[in-house]
Design goal:
Strand content: 25-35%
Shape: globular
Number of strands: 31
Strand order of the largest sheet: 27-24-26-25-29-30-28-31
Number of domains: 3
Bound molecules: guanosine-5',3'-tetraphosphate
CATH topology of the largest domain: Rossmann fold
Length: 522
């Protein structure tokens, strides 16, 4: 069992849209032998120009089922890549996926540097001390100065960095990268299929001058000296604590610098790590199976409403057709057709180990965060909901379909499409999302899958925050004062709906003993 767990690497690639996540994923699959030619992996992003096109949403859902997890063997390692949606309106989905990974590769566009989405996702990584490797992409295009880029990464992502490869120029003058710990030169040769040959050179010999010319050779020598002076030795332990990120430079499109990244990744990235539950910490090498649901994806065929619930195996071994305990329902279930994912294919699996992701067919029995065990009552932690950024009241637009609407809303919320709050003052249902697109998805799916119609009523709110206090009297006083702005989430917890940043600030200073939380786990 230990051997199986040790060789597993479960991670996600995160990036701002267009930085090159799809291209990098594809090259990794190429190395894993999962696909034979470049261009086989579809991007799961919805093009910015067509955000309100229903077909695109459908396509997105179709693609995201097949590319949710990609697994392959590389050298002695078993690699599980968890895909994250490209569109920022699905950021919540990405946050949740990050709770199921043991490490992360961040792709940054060398010309654009750190962008908004990267910054946000890094915050989620920081919350969990997820180890991070950075790949600076598109070096075949004119990029920022690498020293400036490193400074930007440190400052914007608030993590120490240590380059492990170093670029020689960029854009049309791009010559390749120098590998700082293997001490060899990887000369750039634009190609989507072929992996460039490496040349072992001692930087202090004339061989370097012969390879890249004297001017660049001298410049490289100077830069390497500077690097040694500025950046401390790379320490794997610091990387594993989430404090230090190794940085690689390359071009995903040209399959350049990707092999170095992959080779270092499998060697330093963590195998499955212990997972926290409310009761105790679960270690991956425990004999008994435990797992949690971090993502639910609906089938795109509206006549056949079934979902796939994605379960991360946290400990032990999962076996097909074995009874497992569904903690929330307090009942035993068996799964006859659990699936695993290989690039574009799905296959039935007989067993899976800690670190693996399995797809379980679901007809509404699962909810994000659900736990499966061999009988122990455990509740996994660390799948927070974040305060939504957009809010609308949802109204029934077809009085004959009240029941269908309620059921649809319930199930879509279980899937984690958005968050539902009930305003305690007027009893109205309020849906909170991270993007406009979700409202369209909900409306469309209610109609197509539940035969229910909804109407949206805009409401201007700034944030929903979960509140708690050790002083019950103050909490009551707060709820009384803000009675029009108090709501309950689906778990019945108190949520304050602040209509502006100023109001929130005032509330925080007026009620000192109340804690305002911006994620549902505190
Ligand atoms: P994403 O998943 O992070 O959104 O990025 P994706 O890989 O789809 O890449 C976004 C665009 O950047 C694509 O161009 C892709 O070809 C290009 N790209 C990715 N890596 C590199 C690189 O190393 N060098 C260069 N020069 N370009 C790169 P596109 O025009 O949007 O799509 P396509 O028509 O090329 O498929």
């Amino acid at each position: 069992m230990n051997q199986e767990i040790e060789r597993r690497r479960t991670f996600a690639i995160i990036a701002h849209p267009d930085a090159g996540k799809t291209s990098l994923t594809e090259k990794l699959l190429l190395f894993g032998g999962q696909i034979q030619v470049a261009g086989a992996v579809k991007s799961n992003k919805i093009k910015k120009t067509a955000t309100s096109d229903w077909m695109d949403i459908e396509k997105q859902r179709g693609i995201s089922v097949t590319t949710s997890v990609m697994e392959f063997d590389y050298r002695d390692y078993k690699i599980n890549i968890l895909d994250t949606p490209g569109h920022q309106d699905f950021a919540e989905d990405t946050y949740r996926t990050l709770t199921a990974v043991d490490s992360v590769i961040i792709v940054v566009d060398g010309a654009k540097g750190v962008e908004t989405q990267t910054r946000k996702l890094m915050e989620v990584c920081r919350m969990r001390n997820t180890p991070v490797i950075i790949f600076v992409n598109k070096m075949d295009r004119e990029a920022k100065d690498p020293f400036d880029l490193l400074d930007e990464l440190e400052e914007e992502l608030r993590i120490h960095v240590r380059p492990l490869t170093w670029p020689i120029e960029s854009g049309e003058r791009f010559k390749g990268v120098y590998n700082l710990y293997e001490h060899n030169l990887n000369l750039f040769q634009p190609s989507k299929q072929v992996v460039a040959e490496k040349v072992a050179v001692d930087v202090n010999t004339e061989e370097l001058d012969r390879q890249i010319g004297s001017t660049l050779a001298d410049k490289l020598r100077g830069e390497l000296e500077l690097l040694e002076g500025v950046y401390p030795e790379f320490e794997t332990t610091e990387y594993l604590k989430g404090e230090l990120a190794p940085v690689f430079f390359g071009s995903a499109l040209n399959n350049f610098g990707v092999e170095e990244l992959l080779n270092t990744f499998v060697e330093i990235a963590p195998s499955p790590r212990p997972t926290k539950t409310e009761e105790r910490e679960v270690k991956p090498d425990e004999e008994k199976f435990t797992g949690f649901i971090f993502k639910i994806t609906a089938n795109i065929d509206p006549n056949h409403r079934s979902c796939i619930a994605f379960c991360k195996v946290c400990s032990g071994k999962f076996s097909r057709n074995t009874p497992y305990y569904h903690v929330r329902h307090d009942k035993t279930m068996r799964f006859s057709s659990p699936t695993q994912f290989m690039a574009q294919r799905k296959t039935t699996v007989d067993e899976a180990w800690a670190g693996d992701i399995i797809g379980l067919p679901d007809n509404g029995t699962f909810k994000i965060g659900d736990t499966l065990t061999e009988g122990e009552k455990l509740h996994f932690r660390g799948i927070p909901s974040f305060s939504p950024e957009m809010f609308k009241y949802i109204e029934n637009a077809d009085p004959m379909k009240q029941k269908q609407l309620a059921k649809g809303i319930d199930q879509l919320m279980d899937e984690g499409v958005a968050q539902l709050f009930v305003n305690q003052f007027n009893g109205r249902k309020l849906i909170g999302t991270v993007g406009q697109l979700q409202f369209e998805v909900i409306q469309y799916r209610l109609e197509n899958e539940y035969n229910a119609k909804c109407r949206w009523e805009p409401v201007s709110l700034y944030k929903a925050c979960w509140i708690e206090s050790d002083d019950p009297a103050e909490l009551e006083a707060f709820k009384k004062r803000k009675y029009q702005y108090m709501a309950k989430d689906r778990e019945g917890r108190d949520v304050f709906l602040a209509d502006s940043g100023y109001v929130l600030q005032m509330a925080q200073s007026d009620f000192e003993h109340i804690r305002f939380h911006f994620t549902s786990e505190f």
